[in-house]
Amino acid sequence: MAHIHDAERARFFSQQAGRPVEAPRATRARFAIGDIVRHRLHDFRGVVFDVDPVFANSDEWYEAIPKEDRPTREQPFYHLFAENEDQSYIAYVSQQNLVGDAEAGPIEHPSLGQVFEDFDGERYPLRRGLSH
To answer: pLDDT tens digits for 11-66?
Structure first.
């Protein structure tokens, strides 16, 4: 097994996983906070409100995904204010399963206003005072 040098990995504590998670120091997130995305396989859209550099949820959550659909852990995962025709909810989705979808217009999720300004035609800007 290849030995990864510590300088190439970082550790962070994941509340969802309830444990420390290791990740590459550099990952390429395709989407940013405030971007509108659509799931490639399932019929829902959402707004990115957080990004994990690698999978950082519980093993139970990961194992619940059907094996043939299970994404690799070593890619960015996105926390979304998501919605489909029936409901609004929070989703956690791998980068490989998302595509940009701003051209389809705004999202109606009830939590958006707590974090973001109004849709500007391309994305949802963070509310003033919430950006780093």
So the answer is: 767 777 777 777 677 678 899 999 999 999 999 999 999 999 999 999 999 999 99
Q: Which residues contact 36 (CB under 8 A, 6 or more apart)?
A: 45, 46, 47, 100, 101, 102, 104, 106, 107, 119, 123, 124
Residue that the structure tokens 């994404």 belong to: 71
Please tell me the CATH code under which domain 29-115 is placed.
Answer: 2.30.30.390
CA separation for the pair 43, 39 (Å, rounded): 7
Return the amino acid letter for 38: R
Question: Do the beta carbons of residue 52 and residue 65 sit within 8 Å?
Answer: no
Estimate to the nearest angstrom the gap between the alpha carbon of 77 and the chain centroid: 4
100 burial class (0-12, 13-18, 19+ CB within 10 angstroms)?
Answer: middle
Predicted TM-score (pTM) above 0.70: yes
At residue 9, the pLDDT reads: 76
CB atoms closer than 10 angstroms to residue 41:
8
What CA–CA distance (Å, rounded) separates 123 from 132? 18
